[in-house]
Write a structure and sequence with these properties.
Number of strands: 2
Number of domains: 1
Shape: flat
Largest sheet: 2 strands, parallel
Distance between the termini: 32 Å
Radius of gyration: 21 Å
Strand content: under 5%
Strand order of the largest sheet: 1-2
Helix content: over 70%
Order of helices and strands: HHHEHHEHHHHHH
Length: 251
Amino acid sequence: MSFWDHLEELRGTLIRSVLIVLAFFTVGFFLKETLFDGVILRPTRPDFWLYRLLGVDLSINLINIDIAAQFFTHIKVTFICAVVVSFPLICYEIWKFIAPGLYEKEKKVMRKAFGLGAGLFYLGIAVGYFIVMPVLLVFFNGYQVSGSIENTFALTSYVSIFLAMVFVMGILFEFPSVLAVLSHFGVITRDTMKKSRRYAVVVILILSAVLTPTGDPFTMLVVAVPLYLLYEFSILICKPGVPEEVADDID
């Protein structure tokens, strides 16, 4: 295929991906009550599973102080949720675009990487939704500089932290799948990962500080711990030495 043929294929991939997101966006837009009451706002209620497990009595009141905030929040959240739901289909479209240019061994590796990446993405979403976000709400709802000041959160503030913690955790959980591919092609090894552990801790802490919208040490720690566990998981799935395929090519 010529350069323009590849460009046309890429154009088709992008158009199909956009249409997939728009289709889910349309469905989600008309399911506003289910999306917000059943999912987005669920961690603000005392019957959320983690609160019952920990015996925490938490009930958060959200307010809106901007005329157009609820409408634009509806649009923003629906779009992000559409991207999350569309993720496996978008990965499939990307796979169809790059697969013809790969050798059979490379296809096998990338196929596993796409599968692992999709699974880890939703695992990250689940960790952010069921653990990280509720822990943050418990902490900030109970934190007061003075007993005379009552905590009442704005809708936009809640949604910003919710999307940052949930969606960003899904993206960050893609880290092991990337390292697995690099390990297979001999770019990194398990020994390299072990030797770089102390530097990885520093990078994880810096990354957590940048990604957390509040910037406080507690939130940074809540984000950093799952990322460090991901790094340890990445060490386990990386190859211990130079792969046989690479060694054969070198010879």
